[in-house]
Design brief:
The complex is a heterodimer. By secondary structure, chain A is of the alpha+beta class. Chain A is built from 19 helices and eleven strands. Chain A has a four-stranded antiparallel sheet. Chain A has a three-stranded antiparallel sheet with strand order 2-1-5, with no helix packed on it. In chain A, strands 3-4 form a two-stranded antiparallel sheet. By secondary structure, chain B is an alpha/beta fold. Chain B contains 21 helices and twelve strands. The chains are: A alpha+beta, B alpha/beta.
C-alpha cells in the first residue's frame, strides 16, 4: 500500500517520499518497530504521508472530473469504503475442528492417489517434482510420442499439458486430482486457521477496490475469491465457514446469471430479454431456439451445451474452447456458436460495437461509467489485440455486475445500520453476499436483502436473487 | 575496496536472452505492438550493474556470425539451437543504438563468439593490472577465472554471485579454473551441442577430474578403469578431445583492450531519453536518469574534493543519516540516494518547504483539535506497530489539511493512556468533516481497536486508483 503511494507521489507530484526502509529497515525479522524511531523522524515521515495524501486528493478530484467518473466514485466507491471496513471488522467464524478433519481426509485421499500413481508408474517417485514426473510420463510410460520440453530441457508437465492427456489416461487424472488436493490442503485447509485473529477468534478478510481491472472486488488474507467450487473437496472448504453463534444462521444471497442478464440488456436482444422477463429457464430456452426444438423437448445434453455457450459468450469463447469444454467436435462447436449468434443477432452487433468503441476511445464503460482503458486495442500483435478485444466485450459486463453488487451492498449496509439489526453482512464473493443472519430477524432481513439486490440498478431485464440459509456457507450457498 | 581499477565485460546475448525469458509469461508490448521484453530485460540488468558497481571501465560484447573455428571442427556445434525468437532479433539493433547513445563501447568480431572476445579482453586487461568482471550467467566462463578475473553472475530472482577461484573450485570440484574446460569436455553441453564423453555426467566428470586431473590424463589411463566405461572411453577418445577443444574459450581473438576506450563516460542523455520514449520505457527512463544523476553528483563531488574517496563517502553518509545509527539499517547502496533524488528531478522532503509539527502536550492537542474542527476536509494517517490493522497498537496519527503543513500526535505505549488521548479527538472523528486517507480502511480499523468510530464522508486515494487514466 505504501509502495503504491510512493508511486503515486512520484507520478503525480514529482515527489519522492521518505522511504520506510530508511526509517525502520527492510521487511523481515530485523525490521524495527516505529516505536523506537526518534519522534522527530516519526513526525517528518508520518506527516509527509498525510501531506502527500492530502495533495493527491486535490489532484485526483480534478482528474476524476476530467475522466467523467466523479459520480461513480462519489456514489459507489467512496460510500463502499465504510461498508467494506465494517465487513472487515466484523469477520466470520471458522470451524477449525472441521478444517482439521478435512485436512486428514485430504491426506488420506492424497496417500491413496499416491499409491495408485506409483502402481501405474511401476515405481515410486516424487510426484511433486516436474522433472521426475516428466521422466515417468514421457520416457517410461511414453504417453506421448513427441513430448514438449521446457527451455531447460525438462518435460513440460503443466496443467495445460496434462489436461489434453486426461481423457485417455487414468494416471493423468490421478495426478491432476493429487495436485488439486495438495493445493487445496496447503492454501486453504491448513492455511485458514492461521488467519484467525487471536482477539476475535474470527477471520477478517481484507477487500481491495482498485486491484481488479474490471471493478470487481478482490480479497486478501485470505483470498476468498479463489476457493475452488467446481470440485467436491473444494466446495467442502466452504463448510468451514459457520455462523457467529446459535442465534445466527449463515445467509447467502446470489445473483443468478447476472452477466447474461446484463449482456441481454446492454445489447437490447429482445429474444433473450423476453426469456428472462417470462422467467424461463434461460439455458433451456436458448437450447430450444438454437437446436430448433420445442422447449419441452430440449434434452439434457442440449441444455448443457447451450449453458456452456451462454456462459462462454461473455468471455469470447471460441469454437476451439467450446469443443474442449463439451463433447462437441470443433466443427459442431463452430456451428453451435454461429447458430447462437443467428438466434441472438443483436448480441453479436453489440459485441462488435464495443470493440469499435474501444478502438476509437481507448476504453470501454460499464452501466455506471466505470472505465476500463485498453491500451492494446490497436496493437499490431494479433494475439495481444484479440486479448484486448475480448476485454472490450467482457469488461462492461463484469464491471456492470460489479457496479450492481456494490450498489446493493451500500444500500443493504445503510438499511441495516438504520434499523440497527443484529444481523451483519460478512462477505462478498463473485456474485454473492454472505450474512450472519440473526434468527429473530430472518423474516425481516430476507426480503430486504432480496429487494435491495434485485433493485440496485434498473435495466430492461429483471435481476434475480436466490437466497439460502445454512449452518455453514456450503449449506447456505 | 582496493585501488585496482575494475573492468566490466558484459555478455550481451546471455543477458538479452535472460531478460527476454524473464518476461515470457507477460511480455512487454508497447502501444505500437513492439515486443520490448528483451530490450527492457537487458537494460534493467545493465543499469543494475552500473548502479551497484559503478565500474571504471565497461564494454558490452556481442557474437557475430557464430564461431567459424568451432563449426569447422565440429559441424553440429550449436546446431540444435532453436531459431532465435523474433523479439530478440528486433532487440539487438535497438540495444546497440542505446549503447551508442550511452557511449558504451560495443565489442564484436565477425566469426567469433562473445565468450572468446570476453576471454581475450579479460586476459589482456589482467596483464595491464586491471580487475575484470565478466557479467554473464553462463557457467562456461568459469574456466577464465583467475586472481584478477571474476564471474559476475546474475542470480535467479535478483542480485549477483561473484565467482572467484574458491567458488569455481567448489562448484566444479576442480583445483584450477582451467580444469573447468576438462569438466565441460567430459560431460558435454546439450545447449551448445558439445557431445562430451559418452556415459559421463556431472558426477562421473568430477570423479575423473579428482583422479586424473585432465581429459588427456584420463584418456591415457583408461586401463585403470573397468567394464563398460572403459570400453566407451577407449572407443571415444577423439570425441573427448574434440569436446574439450569446443569447450575451450579462445584467448587470441584479434581485439585489443584499450583502457581509455572502455572508460565509463557520461551518456548522451537527450539521445537515450528519445530512444526510451520511443520504446515507451517510462520506469526505465526514471531509473536511467537516477543512475546517471548519481554519477554526475559523484563526479562533481570528487572534482570539488581533491582528497578523494574517503571524504566522499563520509559526506554522503552525513547527508542521508542525520541520526548516525540509522545508517546501520539503510538498504545497501542507498547511501547516495539523496543526491540522486535531487539530481534526478524528484522533489524530496529535503528540498521542499514544509512545516511538520510534533504535538505532545494537552494544550497543543487542544489547539490542534480546535483547528481540525474548523476544517471541511482533513487527511489523517495512523502509524502503528505492525500491518494487521485489527491486532496492532497505535503509535501516532498525522493530520494535514494544507499543502506542506501538518501535525503529528504521538501516543505512549501505555494503552490506557493512549485511549484517553484518543478520546480527546472523538469530536473530530465522529464529525461530518470529510476524512481523507490512503487505504483509509486500515486507519479506521486501527481506531476501531479503541472503539473510536470514524464518521463523515470518506475519501480514499487507494480506492480510486484504477479509475485513473494512467492506470495500466
Amino acid at each position: 500500500m505504501r509502495h503504491n503511494m510512493d508511486m503515486l507521489a512520484e507520478t503525480y507530484l514529482n515527489y519522492q517520499p521518505v522511504s520506510i526502509t530508511e526509517l525502520i529497515g527492510k521487511k523481515g525479522k530485523n525490521q524495527l518497530s516505529m516505536r523506537v524511531v526518534p519522534i522527530a523522524d516519526q513526525t517528518e515521515y508520518a506527516v509527509e504521508d498525510a501531506d502527500i495524501t492530502f495533495q493527491l486528493k486535490q489532484l485526483f478530484t480534478t482528474e476524476l472530473e476530467s475522466g467523467n467518473v466523479t459520480k461513480l466514485f462519489n456514489d459507489i466507491e467512496l460510500p463502499l469504503v465504510s461498508v467494506l471496513t465494517a465487513m472487515e471488522i466484523e469477520g466470520i467464524n471458522v470451524n477449525t475442528d472441521f478444517l482439521k478433519e478435512l485436512s486428514i481426509a485430504l491426506s488420506d485421499d492424497i496417500n491413496r492417489l499416491e499409491k495408485e500413481i506409483y502402481e501405474q508408474a511401476g515405481e515410486e517417485f516424487n510426484i511433486a517434482s516436474p522433472k521426475q514426473l516428466g521422466i515417468i510420463l514421457f520416457e517410461k510410460l511414453e504417453l506421448v510420442k513427441k513430448p514438449k520440453k521446457t527451455k531447460t530441457g525438462q518435460y513440460k508437465t503443466g496443467e495445460d499439458i496434462l489436461s489434453f492427456l486426461a481423457k485417455d489416461h487414468k494416471i493423468i487424472r490421478d495426478i491432476q486430482e493429487y495436485r488439486q488436493y495438495k493445493k487445496l490442503q496447503s492454501t486453504y485447509v491448513d492455511a485458514l486457521p492461521n488467519e484467525i485473529n487471536a482477539k476475535t477468534g474470527r477471520i477478517h478478510t481484507e477487500y481491495m477496490q482498485a486491484v481488479a481491472a474490471t471493478g470487481r472486488l478482490s480479497s486478501n488474507n485470505p483470498n476468498l475469491q479463489n476457493i475452488p467450487i467446481r470440485t467436491e473437496r473444494g466446495r467442502e472448504v466452504r463448510k468451514a465457514f459457520v455462523p457467529k453463534d446459535d442465534n445466527h444462521v449463515l445467509l447467502a444471497a446470489d445473483y443468478s446469471q447476472i452477466e447474461l442478464r446484463i449482456i441481454a440488456a446492454l445489447s437490447e436482444e429482445e429474444n433473450m430479454i423476453n426469456a428472462f422477463k417470462n422467467g424461463e429457464d434461460i439455458h433451456a430456452s436458448t437450447a430450444a431456439k438454437v437446436f430448433n426444438v420445442a422447449l419441452e423437448n430440449v434434452t439434457r445434453e442440449q441444455r448443457s451445451n447451450a449453458k456452456t455457450v451462454n456462459f462462454g459468450i461473455v468471455y469470447g469463447v471460441s469454437a476451439f474452447g467450446l469443443s474442449n469444454q463439451t463433447n462437441l467436435s470443433r466443427s459442431e462447436a463452430k456451428e453451435l456458436i454461429d447458430t447462437y449468434y443467428e438466434t441472438y443477432p443483436k448480441l453479436k452487433a453489440y459485441m462488435t460495437s464495443q470493440v469499435e468503441f474501444a478502438r476509437e476511445h481507448g476504453y470501454v464503460e460499464t452501466v455506471l461509467n466505470r472505465r476500463r482503458y485498453l491500451k492494446d486495442i490497436n496493437s499490431r500483435n494479433a494475439m495481444v489485440r484479440s486479448g484486448a478485444e475480448r476485454n472490450a466485450v467482457n469488461a462492461p459486463i463484469q464491471g456492470s455486475a460489479a457496479d450492481i453488487i456494490k450498489l446493493a451492498m451500500i444500500n443493504i449496509h445503510n438499511r441495516f445500520e438504520k434499523e440497527n439489526f443484529k444481523s451483519k453482512m460478512l462477505l462478498q464473493v463473485h456474485d454473492e453476499l454472505v450474512f450472519d443472519a440473526h434468527k429473530e430477524e430472518l423474516e425481516i432481513i430476507r426480503p430486504i436483502i432480496k429487494h435491495e439486490m434485485e433493485n440496485a440498478f434498473k435495466m430492461s431485464v429483471p435481476l434475480d436473487v436466490e437466497i439460502d440459509l445454512g449452518e455453514n456457507w456450503l449449506e447456505a450457498h | 575496496m582496493s585501488d585496482q581499477k575494475r573492468v566490466f565485460l558484459v555478455d550481451a546475448f546471455a543477458l538479452i536472452f535472460r531478460g527476454y525469458y524473464a518476461f515470457i509469461k507477460n511480455p512487454r508490448i508497447n502501444s505500437k505492438g513492439l515486443d520490448t521484453s528483451a530490450i527492457m530485460g537487458f537494460m534493467n540488468s545493465l543499469l543494475d550493474v552500473i548502479k551497484r558497481e559503478r565500474p571504471d571501465h565497461l564494454a558490452v560484447c556481442f557474437d557475430k556470425g557464430g564461431s567459424v573455428d568451432r563449426v569447422e571442427m565440429f559441424e553440429a556445434y550449436k546446431a540444435n539451437r532453436d531459431e532465435t525468437p523474433e523479439a530478440i532479433k528486433i532487440a539487438v539493433p535497438y540495444i546497440q543504438e542505446i549503447l551508442k547513445a550511452m557511449h558504451i563501447p560495443i565489442m564484436v568480431k565477425e566469426g567469433f563468439e562473445a565468450d572468446d572476445v570476453i576471454g581475450t579482453l579479460s586476459k589482456q586487461a589482467e596483464k595491464e593490472g586491471y580487475k575484470t568482471f565478466m557479467v554473464t550467467p553462463d557457467k562456461d566462463f568459469a574456466q577464465l577465472v583467475s586472481e584478477n578475473i571474476f564471474m559476475y553472475k546474475p542470480r535467479f530472482g535478483g542480485g549477483y554471485d561473484i565467482w572467484g577461484i574458491p567458488e569455481v573450485q567448489e562448484k566444479f570440484g576442480v583445483e584450477t579454473p582451467e580444469q573447468v574446460i576438462d569438466f565441460l569436455g567430459m560431460m558435454g553441453d546439450s545447449a551448445d551441442n558439445i557431445p562430451g564423453l559418452p556415459g559421463v555426467g556431472e558426477k562421473t566428470a568430477k570423479k575423473f577430474l579428482t583422479a586424473y586431473g585432465s581429459m588427456e590424463n584420463l584418456l591415457a589411463n583408461t586401463h585403470e578403469l573397468k567394464g563398460k566405461m572403459k570400453e566407451k572411453l577407449e572407443a571415444n577418445g577423439e570425441l573427448g578431445l574434440l569436446s574439450k577443444k569446443l569447450a575451450t574459450i579462445m584467448l587470441d581473438v584479434p581485439v585489443t583492450f584499450h583502457a581509455k576506450d572502455f572508460e565509463l563516460d557520461q551518456p548522451d542523455i537527450e539521445k537515450v531519453t528519445e530512444l526510451f520514449n520511443e520504446l515507451e520505457f517510462r520506469n526505465l527512463l526514471v531509473n536511467f536518469t537516477r543512475t546517471f544523476a548519481v554519477e554526475n553528483a559523484e563526479k562533481v563531488n570528487s572534482a570539488e574534493n581533491s582528497s578523494e574517496e574517503k571524504v566522499k563517502t563520509v559526506a554522503k553518509k552525513a547527508a542521508t543519516a542525520p541520526e548516525g545509527q540509522f545508517d546501520l539499517f539503510a538498504a545497501p547502496g542507498s547511501g547516495s540516494v539523496s543526491d540522486a533524488e535531487i539530481a534526478s528531478g524528484f522533489k524530496t522532503i529535503k528540498n521542499t518547504d514544509h512545516f511538520y509539527q510534533h504535538i505532545d502536550s494537552p494544550l497543543s492537542r487542544k489547539l490542534l483539535i480546535r483547528k481540525l474542527m474548523e476544517q471541511t476536509s482533513v487527511c489523517f494517517d495512523t502509524e502503528t506497530t505492525g500491518l494487521k490493522a485489527l491486532e496492532v497498537e497505535l503509535i501516532g496519527i498525522a493530520f494535514s489539511f494544507e499543502k506542506g503543513k501538518g501535525y503529528y500526535v504521538s501516543f505512549p505505549e501505555d494503552q490506557e493512556e493512549t485511549r484517553l488521548i484518543l478520546e480527546e479527538f472523538r469530536p473530530f472523528f465522529e464529525s461530518e468533516i470529510e476524512k481523507i486517507g490512503h487505504n483509509i480502511k486500515y486507519d479506521i480499523k486501527v481506531l476501531s481497536n479503541y472503539n473510536m468510530p470514524v464518521r463523515g464522508k470518506l475519501f480514499d486515494n487507494c480506492a480510486l486508483f484504477n479509475q485513473s487514466r494512467y492506470a495500466s
